Amino acid sequence: MPLPISLFLLLLLLFGLSLLWLELRHRLRPASPLRLLPGPFQVKRKAQGLELSGEITIRNPHGRMEVFVPEINVQPVLLGRADLTEVRSEVRITPLHPDEEARPDHYWAAYIVKGHKSTAVQLRINLIGPAGTDLEGLIDTVWLDIQWINYGPFGRLWRRDGILVPVQKPEPTPAAIASWREGEHCRVLPVRTHLLGVLDDPQQVLEHYTGHLLQPGDVLTIGETPLAVMQGRYHHPSMVEPSMLSRLLCRVFHPTSSLATACGLQTLIDIVGPARVLCAWLAGSALKLIGIKGGFYRLAGDQARLIDDVTGTTPPYDQTLVLGPEAPELFCHRVAAALGVAVAVVDVNDLGRVKVLASSRDCDEELLHRALKPNPAGNANERTPLVLVRPA
């Protein structure tokens, strides 16, 4: 027997109020406006090892809220090709507050970052190895694990950020010895780079490693994850507070999906909101009943497919959640104009799946699907995030 119109309207109203409650609860959750922005870092060889030095900025974009920073700590994590357990690290944190002098003992006194203001922090890390050890040859990169406290009207929040500082950078591959691979009516060249991070400018990386190789008609591609990490679009799972919705709903996704964990799904909820995620799941489930798959991912937005959960990418980002890149179309158009060739942002896996997220004008996407189907960049630690495609 069909439901009376009044009962249907009541159920619809209750559903709408539930969505409103989810959105309000999500938007009113404790959050700090402070942003940590890394500056340039330098790596110098010292008599006993290496010295890394640079600055980070703590900015408060909020107009009225004042936020305390009572604690900040930095833990260097060394990545290399050998046993680095005997390498000792010394960290010095020096506040560079605009209205206070740094203490001579380098003690971090609790500081208030006022609205629309910022402060800076100088980091100096000395890496000391056993006598006679060439640390520059052993250490590939240094991951700076930054743990700091935000204190204010929202309560006391523990924050965790990471900055990758490259120690070794390979030289660009000379054109004369470039190892091109033969593809279907094309040639493909995976281009090796250093381990990329937020300190790198994406356009400069492409120019540095491929500028001397480019010819008219080429298509230069970059993986969506390397571009995202250079844009700083990653965060540690400890920064995510899973809601009841994410804890329940994540169980319906395939175990290999990045949305099959509470933190992975909550990351999507933090981007598009709980109401959209819930409605996308309900509509996607209904579409699946009539044989239409993938409805959730189309309705929940592009980031639903692009989020990489823990272990989804190369170390040290394997311990973080990586989002999809920001404004990939604008990036492609800008870099294509600078380099004079077509540029595309792609997502490729070992199963032969090729997705072109964005491309510049006159980019032959059919050519990219043929060339990238074998996944020449690889999904392991090849460090070839750039692939140059040349039509035969």
Can you characterise this structure?
This protein has helices spanning 5-27, 135-138, 202-210, 224-230, 244-249, 262-272, 274-289, 295-300, 303-306, 328-339, 365-372; strands at 35-45, 49-59, 67-69, 72-80, 88-96, 111-113, 118-128, 139-152, 155-166, 181-183, 186-191, 219-223, 234-235, 321-322, 342-348, 354-359, 386-391. It has 392 residues and is an alpha+beta fold. The chain has three domains: 35-166, Immunoglobulins (Immunoglobulin-like); 175-232 and 324-391, 60s Ribosomal Protein L30, Chain: A (2-Layer Sandwich), CATH 3.30.1330; 234-322, no CATH class. The strands form five sheets. A six-stranded mixed beta sheet has the order 10-11-17-12-15-16. A four-stranded antiparallel beta sheet has the order 1-2-7-5, with no helix packed on it. β8 and β9 (155-166) form a beta hairpin. The termini are far apart.
Short structural description:
With 392 residues, this protein is of the alpha+beta class. It has helices at residues 5-27, 135-138, 202-210, 224-230, 244-249, 262-272, 274-289, 295-300, 303-306, 328-339, 365-372; strands spanning 35-45, 49-59, 67-69, 72-80, 88-96, 111-113, 118-128, 139-152, 155-166, 181-183, 186-191, 219-223, 234-235, 321-322, 342-348, 354-359, 386-391.
